[in-house]
Amino acid sequence: MYFRKASKFILAWTVALPIAVASVPVPGKNFDRDAPFESERTRRTPAPVAVSTCQRRGQPCDHKLKCCNQSQCRGGSGRRRCKRKIHKFKPFQDFAPNALEDEKYDTVFELGRNFLSLSSDGRTMITGGYYYREDDAPMYTFVQDMDITRPSTTVLFQDPRNKAFPYNETNYMQSAISKDGQVLAIGTAGANNNAGEVKTYLWDDVLRDWTPLETLTENFYCGEYVALSEDGLTMVVTATFNVDRPYFGYFQRYSLNGTTWEKEGPEVLTNTDGYFMNIKMTPNGDKVVVTESDEQEVHLYVWDPKADNWNKTKTFEPYLDSTFLTAFGDDNLEISDDGSTIVISDSEYDNDTGIAFVYTNDTEQVIIGLEEGSYFSYGFALSGDGETLALGAWSGEKEGIHIYKKRGDEGFVYQKQHIRVYENSRIALNYNGTVLAFEHNPEYEGLVSVYLLS
Fold this sequence. Notes:
- This protein is mainly β.
- The protein has helices spanning 2-22, 191-194, 349-352, and strands at 71-74, 81-84, 89-95, 107-109, 116-118, 124-132, 139-145, 164-167, 173-177, 183-188, 197-204, 209-212, 226-228, 234-239, 250-257, 260-269, 276-281, 287-292, 297-304, 309-316, 333-335, 341-346, 355-360, 363-368, 380-382, 388-393, 400-406, 412-419, 427-429, 435-440, 447-453.
């Protein structure tokens, strides 16, 4: 009896065993309970893994052994290796305005010499210049929209947004455009018998035209330098004369309310007799950097919305021998959109060799020019993201524009790209450093060229 019971138990266990095994899911498969169990012999062999046909970074390369993406084959004969791919700027289009409706203006002179700026997306550019005729040379601010996907066959003024804003004054003109390309500010310090003024415009999508906003008229040389926030609702303006403290310059913050500009906070005065210059503001309007003339100093101010006031948080002073520095912050300065990177130049450093100081948080990097008399860093631009730096040399064998990219703790590293142009003084970059615009002076007429990152 015991044997019969044991036999039944063994038989039941033996019959149930395949079912129990078959009910265990196989990893990586959608198991079918009714399907027969797949044995080791009938199981499919995995497909072979594809072998890479390109060479990785550091491996040898030639016309047959191609490098993988983001790498390029560089080096001398027999020693070529796959190295980090260097993206370079390539020519896109040159811009020079046609003669205006008034036939007396037939020659443009020094287009871009006064100022040059790009919107964040690089599709809107503003620049300055003036037309020459025998009795006078009125200045203009030019607005140009670009289709950066393809070169345009048109020149300035062929679209409602592409417009020339005239002035009868010939000196001290600066303009700014908001990063979104919707608000335009034109400062003319020489207007109204040197009292100065700032004319502002808002782009109207319905009317398809630039509609005037309030014109600011303040003190002596008002509007010599202007800066706008990203949305164009905040503006800072410099002037070189204060009513209560004559010969002390100042800058003032304004906010746009409808079509009028309202003052925010008190005027910020210079420490001594002098004036502010080269003022730049972050897109959100909370930080400005500005040069104080005759002081060899650049100041960083942070806006305090609760106190409705600017607080000076830092002063930049070069640590080099001051006898070599004569124009620290005079030529130009830039601040990244987040305010973490500030670039200050002195093109007259060490017999006009030129030098650029890069301040990133608490670190300082110095980029010195390549030869005496080149006025290195006279013109330069920093991309909004703080990753690309374009430094210009005015003259000499290295004249033109030199491109640098930020690389971790190394700071800005030269990208081995030299765009050779004659007498460059104004450079602009868009937010991510993919659009480069610069002024140069072939045959003394003035030209603005636009390059795109390949």
